[in-house]
Amino acid sequence: MVVRAGSLASAMSEKTIVHLLRHGEVHNPEGILYGRLPGYHLSEDGVLMAQAAAKWFADRDVAAIFSSPLERALETAAPISELFGLPVTVDERLIEAGNRFEGLTFGVGQGSLRRPAHWPFLINPFRPSWGEPYKQIAARMKAAVIAARDAARGREAVCVSHQLPIWTLRRYAEKRRLWHHPKHRQCQLASVTSLTFEGVRLVGVSYAEPAADLVRRPTVPGA
């Protein structure tokens, strides 16, 4: 195989954008930390958020769509898939972070933090001790983004995922420490965190909130 110098230079400077889209609002009146549990679908507002996100992508050059296997992510990806006539490829690496408090309400008062049996899981916020390590989240998300970048080479890809995995990858990409306070995450419902590559080199990170007008209330951290 012969690669001409001009072709190599073009490939090295080729711009590809991978958009990390957080899913829309979930119907969760009990305030459960649902994590990876099945059966949690978009609320009525969540469906509108997914549609708003699709509208935001309408003028983009989307060539590939990937999604976490969870229902809320697939339902968020659906309008984009319909708009572009592209299939949604499920990538397990985009799934929500594992969490020991999955299925419980979280917080003090009547939440799971009130129970002494749960306190040992809180001893190390830097790993964290209550769930999937930040380094592990960053590694799997990085691998998913690289796969999406390669699939959409020279164009754009959408990866639908979840708040904590997206925010962890962003902090990794920006060379910041991975541990953080959940209240400081810039990753609203149906928000888009975009990674711009020139060839294989990451050259920019940007953020947008296509459904900002539809966000009415705080959500469970990490959802």
UniProtKB/TrEMBL annotation:
Species annotation: Thermomonospora curvata (strain ATCC 19995 / DSM 43183 / JCM 3096 / KCTC 9072 / NBRC 15933 / NCIMB 10081 / Henssen B9)
Molecular function terms from GO: phosphatase activity
GO cellular component labels: cytoplasm
One Pfam family recorded for the sequence: His_Phos_1
PANTHER family recorded: BROAD-SPECIFICITY PHOSPHATASE YOR283W-RELATED, PHOSPHOGLYCERATE MUTASE
CDD domains: HP_PGM_like (cd07067)
Protein name listed in UniProt: Phosphoglycerate mutase
Superkingdom classification of source: Bacteria
